[in-house]
Amino acid sequence: MRWLATIAALLLMPAATARGVEPASLLLKPDAVFDGVDGKVHPGWQVLVTGDRIVAVGPNLAVPAGAKPLDLAGTTLMPGMIEGHGHLFLHPYDETSWDDQVLHEPLALRTARAVANAKATLLAGFTSERDLGTEGAGYADVGLKAAIDQGIVPGPRLSVATRAIVALGAYGPKGFEPGVAIPQGAEEVSGVDQIVAAVRRQIAAGADWIKLYADYRWRPGEDSRATLSLDEMKAAVAAAHDAGRPVAVHAATAEGMRRAVAAGVDTIEHGYGGTPEIFAAMAAKGIALCTTLAASDATSRYRGWNGSDPAPAAVLLNRKSFRMAMAAGVPICMGGDVGVFAHGQNAREMELMAAAGMAPAKVLIAATSGNARWFHTSDKVGAVKPGLLADLIAVEGDPTADIRAVRHVRIVMKGGAIIPGEKAR
Ligand SMILES: [Zn+2]
User: Fold this and answer.
1) Which residues lie near ion ligand 1 (Cβ < 5 Å)?
2) Mean pLDDT of the chain
């Protein structure tokens, strides 16, 4: 924690430098607090942080002598946000196509860019991120996570999925001479034994999550079809759960989603082809949906859409399935598939969720305590609550009145340390 620790020490003087010395405290004084759980903005509340933890929240706090006040007038203090579906090793497809990123960009270039992407994400107020696959960059996400955890580079707390797992021949890049082995964007498997081996290999290499592709296009231009069999997915889920790792599944088709639900996965990504029956089953089983509205929005814009109505079919379908899932009571994850669009613009998904009809307070809950719950990290992050890590952000104005307030981040605190950067004052 080299530079983070240094910053923390500067901000929280006198720091705990000797045995028996209490860690220093900081009293955050915003206009109001949104705790990430009850959906309300509480005017006049303050937050006391000691060391890396939140120790008290509310009005008229008993403040220890020596606590340093931090005036945050004009802001709402809320939990650091949690990106639910990112790819730090990808950059926008209108800059470089996905195929060219996977095939032509050296691993060192992709890793260097991921370091910059992680910093941009943190400065945008996202203090945690679930990264769902390096897309051809091997296990580099495990190293990036370690570099962040060791304080070598700034970034969100990462949960990583390493290479992800696809059915043999179903993923990409493709369209080359069939006799030539082409590097793929994920690990290919066929059969129960191979998928179990891949799950175990990835966990051993550092995967916190297992990511499966339940469906994909067999050839460019075709519609997606289910790929992994139900038996393969069940075996993968059993191997992952035995190791205490949850499973995220890319599923765009109804059949892919049905198999994922039947296999007992933890989250479903995209879900464009969901039906009321499938969403009811997800709600009953508590399987969260990451709708990735920003991904269909971004790719449609790359194809020439200017954002006005009528929206293209892919965007309409995404909005429709999102509304259907909400109506069915499916737990909603906030995850935009960031990487398809620029890192640091993660709030784009939240704006699109609100535009599609979710109340801003519910969008904020999805991005904080909701994602923490679906990702099994509620004991550490996702709420402004005593005992949790002090991952906090102060945003200008009231984000429950206008979700765009989350674009205006005045300070980002991670584990009690204020992150220096262009947006920090
Ligand atoms: Zn993705």
Assistant:
1) 337
2) 94
